[in-house]
């Protein structure tokens, strides 16, 4: 039966020879994703964030991994994705190394926690600028490079790092993350619009929506919410997210296995989004 004849199943999740760009890739979930892309066979993974030292250290760590393909490399490209000039600089630097990009992980993001009545306009604007406007500009300016090698059978991929805070209610109260939650809801819908806009240009656009992962940005909120163990016990799977959870999702969405996935928002939160009550609400929050 034809249904059993899967085309080259052993390569279904391989990223052999792919070129990837990861913004916000020097730490946290971005670094986990970059590691996964490189170990899945990518030939080049560009690591970008604002700090030169952080980008250089992340690239050095990735290049020391033991199971990379021959010639594979992580390349440090510091840039500020919150400004148009910063994104233009990033694109120009990437072009010095390659004429095409197969995978763009728009992961750079920021948050701000403060009570509603004193929440600063400047903080709200900063979060929206990076998390929405910055993502839009990054995808827009990388589109020519993404188009260069995308095909009907194997479209280039854009993956937006959103959050389950953009699907449900995020953190409220003294450390309310109003701009963050609003920005993640906006960027998920932006991804759906771009999936339809860019699909005919052989670029698939999807979002990942993590819940709580113990990262530098999340650890403070985890402690204020009762600690890692308490939040983990409130999760249906009784655990927090792990680096491998992000790694697997990013490799899947980047690979031939997901060549017909477009406009999706993949929740990676152990089901916490659907839990009612204080623990469930806290567990829906993501800090990247």
From TrEMBL:
Keywords: NADP, Oxidoreductase
A GO molecular function held by the record: oxidoreductase activity
PROSITE patterns with a match to the protein in the record: ADH_SHORT
Domain of life: Eukaryota
Entry similarity comment: Belongs to the short-chain dehydrogenases/reductases (SDR) family.
Protein name in the entry: Reductase-like protein
Species of the source: Coniochaeta ligniaria NRRL 30616
């Amino acid at each position: 039966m034809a249904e059993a004849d899967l085309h080259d199943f052993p390569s279904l999740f391989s990223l052999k020879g792919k070129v990837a760009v990861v913004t916000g890739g020097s730490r946290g979930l971005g670094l986990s994703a970059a590691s996964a892309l490189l170990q899945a066979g990518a030939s080049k993974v560009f690591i970008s964030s604002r700090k030169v030292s952080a980008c250089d250290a992340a690239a050095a760590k990735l290049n020391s991994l033991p199971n990379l393909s021959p010639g594979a490399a992580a390349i440090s490209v510091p840039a500020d994705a919150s400004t148009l000039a910063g994104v233009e600089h990033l694109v120009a630097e990437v072009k010095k190394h390659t004429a095409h990009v197969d995978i763009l992980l728009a992961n750079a993001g920021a948050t701000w926690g403060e009570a509603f009545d004193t929440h600063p306009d400047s903080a709200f604007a900063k979060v929206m600028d990076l998390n929405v406007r910055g993502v839009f500009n990054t995808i827009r300016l990388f589109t020519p490079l993404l188009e260069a090698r995308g095909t009907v059978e194997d479209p280039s991929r854009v993956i937006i790092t959103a959050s389950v805070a953009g699907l449900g209610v995020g953190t409220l109260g003294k450390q309310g993350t109003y701009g963050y939650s609003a920005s993640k809801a906006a960027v998920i819908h932006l991804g759906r619009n771009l999936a339809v806009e860019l699909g005919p240009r052989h670029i698939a656009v999807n979002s990942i929506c993590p819940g709580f992962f113990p990262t530098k940005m999340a650890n403070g909120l985890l402690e204020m919410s009762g600690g890692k163990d308490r939040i983990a016990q409130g999760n249906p799977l009784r655990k927090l997210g792990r680096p491998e959870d992000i790694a697997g999702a990013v490799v899947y969405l980047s690979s031939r296995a997901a060549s017909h996935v477009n406009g999706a928002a993949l929740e990676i939160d152990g089901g916490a989004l659907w839990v009612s009550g204080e623990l469930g609400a806290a567990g829906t929050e993501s800090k990247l």
